[in-house]
Specification:
heterodimer, A: 115 residues, alpha+beta, 3-stranded mixed β-sheet, 5 helices, 41% helix, globular, disordered C terminus, B: 160 residues, 4-stranded mixed β-sheet, 11% strand, disordered N terminus, iron (chain B), Monothiol glutaredoxin-5, mitochondrial (chain B), 2Fe-2S (chain B), iron-sulfur (chain B)
Chain lengths: 115, 160
């Protein structure tokens, strides 16, 4: 059974290989029962800078290949650092890194329902 | 002698197959396409080939455009309808396990729905919604002639 933590761990582990240089990751379990587990994943990375949406998705699919095989659905929101800052002006890459260390599950998001 | 002849024949058919695939669409590198299509059944591959070449816009989905059976498929249909697309060829993957698995390999994309325009893979639900929000989807639909000229005014204005 794949958990939100498995997904965020995989993404942060990948940070070492720099396939996706993750600045911020948020995984929310949105499983509602019935079909199987569902996740909403937000990734902020400069790897996505000037990369088309399709290519960003393919890159994340390749990193999360094993996890995706074990779940029903995944929604990806993929931002470059600049794009994310434009959306959330108070956010800085430095604060995000600290957040990830303290709460890798990012399960404090109010939207995350289920279980 | 016999053995090498056989090997040659096998090799030839593999080569032809990979050539066939590399000539189709520009969405993926040829080698990637070949690998992705290796385990797909011939029937599924032929069906997908036919469907995306015979229809300008195809959605591989769960359910039908009139009755989507999954929130992600529904979202894609709604986005397309919002843009005024009235002819959507939907392929119901729930009715055909070979297509359901085959389309994932064909596109090298792990999830359904999948949208093809003029034989080329455009994206799944997230990409479609994102392209809708950024205006790229409208541009694409107009450029590919899916939307008629009267819907074009807005984009043309923006560009000029």
């Amino acid at each position: 059974m794949v958990s939100a933590k498995d997904i965020s761990d995989r993404l942060l582990e990948d940070k070492k290989d720099k396939e996706i240089d993750v600045a911020h990751v948020e995984v929310v379990d949105t499983t509602q029962g019935g079909c199987g587990s569902m996740f909403v994943v937000t990734i902020v990375s400069d790897t996505f800078d000037r990369m088309l949406p399709l290519k960003r998705h393919r890159l994340v699919h390749s990193v999360l290949k094993k996890e995706i095989e074990g779940i029903h659905a995944i929604t990806l929101s993929l931002f470059s650092v600049a794009e994310y800052q434009a959306k959330f002006p108070s956010w800085t890459p430095a604060s995000a890194k600290q957040d990830n260390k303290q709460a890798p599950e990012a399960s404090n998001d109010s939207n995350g329902s289920s279980k | 002698m016999f053995r090498s002849g056989l090997n040659n024949a096998v090799l030839r058919s593999v080569t032809q197959r990979s050539l066939l695939m590399s000539s189709r669409g520009a969405g993926l590198a040829p080698a990637h396409r070949y690998l992705a299509a290796r385990f797909i059944t011939d029937r599924a591959k032929a069906m997908i080939d036919d469907t995306i070449s015979q229809n300008d816009l195809v959605v591989f989905m769960k359910g039908t455009p009139d009755e989507p059976m999954c929130g992600f498929s529904r979202a894609v249909i709604q986005v397309l309808q919002m843009h005024g697309v009235d002819e959507i060829a939907g392929v119901n993957c729930l009715q055909d396990p070979e297509i359901r698995e085959g389309i994932k390999e064909y596109t090298d994309w792990p999830t359904i729905p999948q949208v093809y325009v003029k034989g080329e893979f455009i994206g799944g639900c997230d990409v479609m919604v994102q392209m809708h929000q950024s205006g790229e989807l409208h541009e694409l639909l107009v450029k590919e002639g899916i939307l008629k000229a009267d819907a074009e005014a807005e984009v043309t204005d923006k560009e000029q």
